[in-house]
Design goal:
alpha+beta; Aminopeptidase; 13 helices; globular
């Protein structure tokens, strides 16, 4: 017998969070989500996004066994900013059974209609720093710690139900090999000399902390026109900064300032956590933290978390300074390559930065779907 259960207790939330890791246990290209962080993300008492969002979670169960999950988010702030009436699908996973899929989707549809909304979109999270996009191409590549993985039948079911494309993100592999190393170094050095630009370097995370609000101010400004973007509140900045600080290595964090000390560009890359997360199945305790620390201190692959350049400076050579700074340190550390996080396929400003490297473009594609309700 197939039934639906709304998530209400901590035990339910743990079942909801860990279902994905159990569904994909043994799947080579799946990277488990970090259970501790996800438990915080869906907890109204911990995630500041609940100050402007409502969210409901559901589990589909057959004869008492969980066979699917779905989350529904109403972001009142996003709907106000973009003048829409949308409900967001998030954290959506299910066995290969169309009946299960339909039962889960119906929960989102019904709640959306009840609230007077007219469209559902997803998968998309609380904000641009949450996981977003269903994998539609690149199933044969191992995923990233910061992205979703799903089977191809997800796409088939979405299309069968009447969903259509709303937006696509693409991901790329950037090799540590310039097409013209001398040129990039020359441009970066000349620009720093002429304009008084400087690269900030930090000895420890305590030195970095005072700059975090400035970085998120830059991100809020430069990302504001991107699909679904909602400016982060100060409480969200503090929340995400707390998560990021535990996962970064300062060697691969680069901030560029102008002659007056204003931050004009930033790049935050982090050691790939694919291997430790797979070994621990997303749990830090009792021993998962050991592999995590090893990956953070001796990485071979980097994940790009955030890249932003002040809009009016994007075509002036400033990206070359940012790229060159991180490139030199990564090369000295024998990093093999870096993978970008999801980038909107229409975000040509960011994608143009990778043209100076030998690279594999569009290794994965993920989609936000839309359907009227």
């Amino acid at each position: 017998m197939l039934t639906i259960k709304e998530v209400r207790t901590r035990k339910d939330r743990l079942e909801y969070v860990t279902f994905q890791n159990e569904l994909y246990r043994g799947v080579e290209n799946y990277v488990p989500t970090m259970v501790m962080d996800e438990m915080a993300n869906i907890n109204p008492k911990k995630n500041p996004a609940f100050s402007y969002c409502d969210m409901r979670f559901f589990l589909a169960q057959r004869d008492g066994k969980t066979v699917g999950r779905i989350g529904a988010i109403i972001s009142y702030k996003a709907n106000d900013i973009w003048d829409t009436k949308k409900i967001r699908i998030t954290r959506f996973d299910f066995i290969e059974d169309y009946e299960v899929f339909c039962l889960l989707i119906k929960q989102v549809e019904d709640w959306g209609r009840e609230k007077g909304l007219n469209e559902m979109i997803g998968p998309i999270g609380f904000c641009d720093l949450d996981k977003e996009g269903m994998l539609v191409d690149g199933f044969d590549r191992i995923g990233m710690f910061i992205t979703y993985y799903n089977h191809p039948y997800y796409v088939e079911f979405m299309e069968r139900y009447g969903f259509r494309k709303e937006a696509d993100w693409t991901e790329h592999v950037i090799k540590l090999q310039y097409k013209d190393e001398d040129k990039i170094s020359r441009v970066a050095n000349k620009l720093m000399e002429r304009r008084g630009y400087k690269v900030l370097q930090f000895k420890n995370k305590k030195e970095l902390k005072p700059y975090i609000p400035k970085i998120f101010d830059l991100l809020n400004r430069e990302y504001k026109d991107l699909y679904g973007m909602v400016p982060l509140t100060q409480e969200q900045i503090d929340y995400y900064a707390g998560q990021f600080l535990t996962l970064i290595n300062l060697r691969y964090v680069s901030f560029i300032t102008d002659s007056e000390g204003e931050i004009i560009a930033c790049g935050i890359l982090a050691p790939s956590l694919v291997e430790p997360m797979k070994k621990s199945n997303g749990r830090l305790f009792p021993f998962g933290w050991i592999g995590l620390l090893k990956a953070l201190n001796k990485p071979k692959v980097l994940d790009m978390y955030l890249v932003a350049v002040k809009k009016e400076l994007q075509k002036t050579g400033v990206p070359a300074i940012l790229i060159n700074d991180i490139y030199n340190r990564a090369k000295a550390d024998n990093i093999l390559y870096a993978e970008t996080g999801p980038e909107l396929e229409t975000n040509f400003a960011v994608q143009s930065m990778w043209g100076v490297f030998e690279s594999e473009m569009n290794v994965r594609r993920r989609r936000c779907w839309i359907k009227e309700i």
